[in-house]
């Protein structure tokens, strides 16, 4: 196909460097063993005089990064991970933490917005969150949510809820109240089990 392309500019590519070592193939029986092997190879290169900044490890999938990171750290190999945000940077972790943060601090508007909009199909968007913030008037947002669910909407004219949104807010409030009584590990499990998060684990 390439050869038959009439608009192709004929060219000859020649390497500018001498040939290097042959490519080696290593098939690891498990992810952890693979990471140990790669870290060991890097350690050997550094021992032989190669500068760490001259070494790069490419990974096709992000789940390998934590394994490589752990093994590099174990061997004391200086390294920088590029293109991986880590566990706390994942969207689903931020969503779960938003529920916990709001349970601890009902005045955290950022946590409120993230938690309310994290669930799939609950009918709650940023405009609904903005109305809740206005109704709260700077006070605790859980009280504003309670007032909205109870129909006390005098503070926000024309504030109307669909049955779906009202049910979602009721569910959210109940979940927050339960989370407040639980230790952190149980609270995380409760959020994961109770909420259909937009981002899957």
Strand-helix topology:
Elements: H1 31-47, H2 64-74, H3 91-104, H4 109-116, H5 126-136, H6 141-149, H7 163-179, H8 184-194
**Main sheet overview:** none
In CATH terms, the superfamily of the largest domain is PCRA, domain 4
State the distance separating the first and last CA atoms.
Answer: 43 Å
Highest CATH level, the class of the largest domain: Mainly Alpha
Helix segment count? Answer: 8
What is the share of helical residues? 40-55%
Structural category is mainly alpha
Number of self-contained structural domains:
2
Mean pLDDT: 84
By CATH, the architecture of the largest domain is named: Orthogonal Bundle
What string, H for helix and E for strand, traces the elements in order?
A: HHHHHHHH
Note the overall shape.
elongated
Topology-level CATH name of the largest domain: PCRA, domain 4
> How much strand?
under 5%
Please state the CA-atom Rg, rounded to the nearest Å: 27 Å
Low-confidence stretches: none
Count the strands? 0
What is this entry, summarized?
This protein has 201 residues and is mainly alpha-helical. It has eight helices and no strands.
């Amino acid at each position: 196909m390439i050869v038959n392309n009439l608009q192709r500019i004929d060219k000859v590519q020649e390497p500018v460097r001498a040939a290097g070592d042959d490519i080696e193939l290593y098939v690891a029986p498990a992810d952890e063993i693979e990471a140990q092997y790669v870290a060991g190879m890097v350690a050997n290169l550094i021992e032989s005089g190669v500068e760490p900044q001259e070494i790069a490890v490419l990974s096709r999938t992000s789940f390998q990064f934590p394994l490589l990171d752990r093994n590099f750290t174990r061997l004391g190999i200086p390294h920088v991970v590029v293109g991986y945000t880590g566990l706390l940077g994942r969207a689903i972790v931020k969503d779960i933490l938003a529920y916990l943060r709001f349970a601890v601090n009902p005045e955290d508007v950022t946590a409120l917005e993230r938690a309310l909009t994290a669930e799939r199909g609950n009918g709650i968007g940023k405009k609904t969150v903005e109305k809740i913030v206005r109704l709260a008037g700077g006070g605790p947002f859980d009280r504003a949510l309670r007032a909205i669910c109870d129909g006390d909407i005098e503070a926000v004219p024309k504030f109307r809820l669909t049955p779906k949104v009202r049910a979602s807010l009721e569910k959210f409030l109940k979940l927050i109240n339960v989370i407040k009584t639980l230790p952190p590990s149980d609270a995380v499990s409760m959020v994961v089990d109770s909420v259909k998060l937009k981002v899957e684990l």
